[in-house]
User: Fold Entericidin from Hypericibacter adhaerens.
Amino acid sequence: MTPTTTPTRNPLRPAGNALLPAGALLMAALLALAGCNTAAGFGRDIRNTGNFIEKKADQALN
Assistant:
């Protein structure tokens, strides 16, 4: 008969269930940061397009 061993828990490693909320929070933070960069980039694109149109309109008048 072989002795039964009980698995030992490493106190420095969090339980699997504790990782789910932390992972979800990390994903939400990353998506929020990506959204900010996307909105800022879109704003710069719109501004550059407006500047281009304004410059071409000024050239057409001269």
Remarks:
- The CA atoms of residues 37 and 43 lie 10 Å apart.
- The mean pLDDT is 82.
- Helices lie at 16-61.
